[in-house]
Amino acid sequence: MARGKLPDPLTRRHLLEGEMPEARALATAQAYLAEGRSLEAVDFLARAGAQEELAALRAEAVAAGDLFLLRAVARAAGQPPSNKEWVAVAAAAKEAGMERYAQDAQRQVERGEE
């Protein structure tokens, strides 16, 4: 998929609901990633079975304190965030000044949710 030629929201939905070859899903995910749209790339990475790329996004999410990206990647990979990841997300979010994300992640730590 050429850079700048990302599908519009309706086309994206149809692509994800229909049959899609893994190579095309991976190319679409890479196009989203090239545009800095990681959250939108997650479903295409999952469709492509790109576990390494999902793991890399997961690490990025934790390092950036990005609660939403971590949840999306965890759901796509079928592996809920660990308590250790929540602690790291809370710390990174707090460091980045994202108090709401830090508080939400800290609540997950306190609940002991994985």
Account of the 3D structure:
Helices cover 74% and strands 0% of the residues. The longest helix is centred in the middle third of the chain and has 14 residues, at 51-64. The radius of gyration is 15 Å and the shape is elongated. The chain has helices at residues 9-17, 22-34, 38-48, 51-64, 67-77, 83-95, 99-111. The chain is an all-alpha fold. α2 (22-34) packs antiparallel against α3, α3 (38-48) packs antiparallel against α4 and α6 (83-95) packs antiparallel against α7. The protein is built from seven helices and no strands. The protein has two domains: 1-49, no CATH class; 54-114, no CATH class.
Which helices and strands appear, and what pairs or packs with what?
Blueprint: H1 9-17, H2 22-34, H3 38-48, H4 51-64, H5 67-77, H6 83-95, H7 99-111
Helix pairs in contact: 2-3, 3-4, 3-5, 4-5, 4-6, 6-7
Beta-strand residue percentage: under 5%
| Range of helix content | over 70%
Structural class: mainly alpha
Number of domains: 2
Query: How many angstroms does the end-to-end distance come to?
Result: 35 Å
Mean pLDDT score: 92
Low-confidence runs:
none
Radius of gyration: 15 Å
Shape: elongated
Number of DSSP strand runs: 0
Order of helices and strands: HHHHHHH
Largest sheet: none
Give the helix tally.
7
